[in-house]
Amino acid sequence: MVVFLMETKNKQALLENFRRSLHFQNKCYVDPEGTSGGLALWWTNEVDLDIRFKSKNIIRAVVTRLSHSFSFVSTFIYAPPKRSDRNMFWKDFAKMGRESSFPWLCVGDFNEIGASWEKRGGSLGRDNRVENFQATISECALMDLEFKGNAFTWTNNQRGEANICERIDRAMANVEWRQHFPKAQVFHEVVLGSDHCPLILNCTLPLKRVPKLFKFESMWSTHPTCEEIISDSWDSCVQGSSMFRLAQKLRNCRQSLKEWSAKEFGNNKRKLEALKSQLAVIQADCPSDSNMGEMYQIKKEIETLLDREEMYYHQRSRINWLRYGDRNTSFFHASVIQRRQRNQLLRLKDDNGDWATSEGDINQLLQGYFSNLFQGNGSRNMEDVLASIPQSRNDWVFNHVPVDPRETMARANFGWSEFQGSLGIQGTTRQHTNQISTVTHWECPEEGWVKANCDVAMKKGYPKAAIAVVLRNCKGEVLDGCSSLVKASSTTQGEALAVRLACQLINSNQISRAIIESDNKMVIKLCSTENVPPWECATLIKDIRLISSNFARKFSWVPRACNKASHWVASQAFKGSIPLDWVSILPFALSVICKDDASVEVLS
Q1: Structural contact between residues 92 and 138, judged by C-beta atoms closer than 8 angstroms
Q2: What is the distance between the alpha carbons of residues 33 and 11, in angstroms, rounded to a whole number?
Q3: d(Cα 104, Cα 52) in Å, to the nearest integer?
Q4: Cβ distance 587 to 134 under 8 Å?
Q5: How far is 324 from 322, CA to CA, in rounded Å?
Q6: 454 exposed, middle or buried (CB, 10 Å; 0-12, 13-18, 19+)?
Q7: Where is each Endonuclease/exonuclease/phosphatase domain found (predicted)?
Q8: Secondary structure of 308-358 as H, E, C letters
Q9: Which ranges of 381-470 would DSSP assign to H, the alpha helix?
Q10: Highest mean pLDDT, choosing among 115-119, 193-197, 395-399
Q11: What mean pLDDT is reported for the chain?
Q12: Listed residue (460, 348, 577) closest to 120, CA to CA
């Protein structure tokens, strides 16, 4: 066990009394400067700490778990409270990260938030603070170990609107450390007698094993017989109703794929180890024509297995901005570990405020809660519910929203096309409207036109939002773009701000013909018609109509899948992690999205 204390504000003599009473056999101290600062590191004989460096902000040690004979570097951090001192501290910290080639753990008070959601109350301050911190973490190749418990670790203990809470204490590690400690979890405990909450990092917490759900593995599609297995299962003769036949065929297909996978793929890791052993034996012999051919064949099989392994972890990592094929297996594996830890339910508080930690107690609490939930007698006053039904179905009567006959016809045609498709009948016509879209991917505009995609990113209950616009030509190339932090009270207002920004950008670039796309139906409809807008965005819609009159324009609604580029920019801008020069030097993730959009358009 290791304990790290920050801001002790006391010298060794007083702290030694506490250490001995808690039965910690070893210690390391950094005395405070006057009445500020001070660090203390205590540990038991279960681990060995070799202190390599210490200062008023850092204690760096090599930690060895005696039971496993495994060593890693651990940096215990108390970042400078003053902003002016933190810039130099981050530079030194980044240098430390570049020089580290071992499994590395960093834990402590970083005195900085990593994203806008990690602060509640007060102002966010300068955006470059978050960017500098994120750039340092990225340069050191560290990943946040995440946490369970309260979202914030520090509070100023004020009341009302003066209260500020931040997440400035955290534990981070590189991929190598995470792979050695897949069960490690961070807990934010209750704040007692301090403005910081205690952090507990448990490296040996066992994961609860749960039955695995069936998933179609992407690596199966690389095998030539995969399609045949699926076809045979699907073409099997099953008697019964349509729904029963569908369910039974799905069940047959699932079982066939499981049996086929166990036979053809087996245990990937064991196969890899066996092939590597064979390769080592061959490489130890003198080269000859026979063993050179065998060596080539084994290397080819190893490459295939490595590709399968990477595809396996890529599918589970949910990291969309890295593609398999570049040997990102270690990173994908670490992200899968993060997801598994996030899905663990380890503690649950009952109605009395007591924590249940055992699996049996947690199960009992959950069963009791849902039993009471479904047995309880809810309100039987249905007047409000019944009143809302005609209101939602009669916008003309209650909200004075005029009905567009073309939109009604388009919806009817779309429903009829869906019905025909379910019967296997191919439609002969295709409807084009601003509101109903059957497009599933971004489409390049016609030559001579420019397409502006816009979006907003915001958090419920948070007054600030981020808007983004991406301009692209008929080849899918990014011509210009813009992102900005704004105040918005609703998504409608935020989307309207984004569309207005798009119109301003088109106008400033003197573009004569433009298509403006958004995934908000209401805003697109208000921009393309003369309908009376709601009060919250009336001025914005008026501005949009005025500015867009300077050029030939088309307003079009598209689903989120067709609006990935602007959605990504808005999301990153909201987090404070979008580079200032993102238009001139596209970030890797954005370039992948734009490349995919253009390539899908070419293929179609």
Answers
A1: no
A2: 10
A3: 14
A4: no
A5: 7
A6: buried
A7: 2-196
A8: HHHHHHHHHHCCCCCCCCCCCHHHHHHHHHHHHHHCCCCCEECCCCCEECC
A9: 383-393, 395-398, 405-422
A10: 193-197
A11: 80
A12: 460
Average pLDDT of the residues in 525-548: 87
Q: Is 198 exposed, middle or buried (0-12, 13-18, 19+ CB in 10 A)?
A: middle
179 backbone dihedrals φ, ψ, rounded to 5°? -70, -30
- CA 458/CA 575 separation, integer angstroms: 10
Q: What is the DSSP string of 427-451?
A: PS-----SS-----S--PPPTT-EE
Residue 360: CB atoms within 10 A of its CB come to 8
At 359-417, the pLDDT tens digits run 788 888 888 877 776 665 655 666 656 655 555 556 666 666 666 676 667 667 656 65
- Ramachandran class of 575: left when φ > 0, alpha when ψ lies in -120 to 50, beta otherwise: alpha
Non-local (6+) Cβ contacts of 193 within 8 A are none
Residues 6+ positions from 88 with CB-CB distance below 8 Å: none
109, containing H or E segment: strand 104-109
d(CA 310, CA 239): 40
Three-state SS at 126: coil
Q: Does domain 450-603 have CATH number 3.40.50.360?
A: no
Ramachandran sector of residue 228 (left: φ over 0; alpha: ψ -120 to 50; beta: rest):
alpha
**32 three-class SS:** coil
Query: By C-alpha distance, which of 52, 30, 33 is closest to 41?
Result: 30
> Counting every residue, how long is the chain?
604
CATH of 2-202 among 3.40.50.2000, 3.40.1080.10, 3.60.10.10, 3.40.50.2300: 3.60.10.10
Measure CA 89 to chain center: 28
User: 3-38 burial by CB neighbour count: b if 16+ within 10 A, else e?
Assistant: ebbbbbebeeeebeeebeeeebeebbbbebeeeebb
Sign of the Cα torsion 317, 321, 323, 326 reads negative
Cα 434 from Cα 516, distance rounded (Å): 11
Name the DSSP letter for residue 33.
B
Q: Of 183, 181, 156, 154, which Cα lies nearest the Cα of 167?
A: 154
pLDDT of residue 74: 93
What integer pLDDT is reported at residue 393 of this predicted model?
Answer: 57
Q: Where are the domains of the chain?
A: 2-202, 220-342, 345-371, 450-603
- State the DSSP H helix or E strand holding residue 514, giving kind and residue range, or none if neither: strand 513-518
CA distance 205 to 428: 60
Minimal CA–CA distance to 180: which of 302, 264, 288, 70?
70
- Single-letter amino acid, residue 295: M
Neighbours of 258 (CB within 10 A): 11
Instruction: Give the relative orientation of helices 268-284 and 289-317 as an angle to the nearest 10 degrees.
Output: 150
CA separation, residue 128 to residues 133, 534, 573, 578 (Å): 8, 36, 12, 10
Strand pairing of 169-173 and 348-349? unpaired
Report the alpha-carbon distance of residue 332 to residue 185 in Å, rounded: 18
- The answer to whether the Cα torsion of 555, 559, 563, 569 is positive or negative is positive
Q: How many Å apart are CA 526 and CA 94, to the nearest integer?
A: 50
